[in-house]
Amino acid sequence: MFARPFIDSVDFARNGREMRGEIAVSELSRLADMLARSEGSLIYIVRGYHEDDRDMLELSLQGACFLRCQRCLGELEYPVDIVSRLRLLPADRLDEAEEDDDEMDAIEAETRLDVLALIEEELLLDLPFAPMHQEGECAPTTRDSQQKASPFAVLAGLKK
Question: What is the predicted pLDDT for the residue at 141?
Answer without folding.
Answer: 55
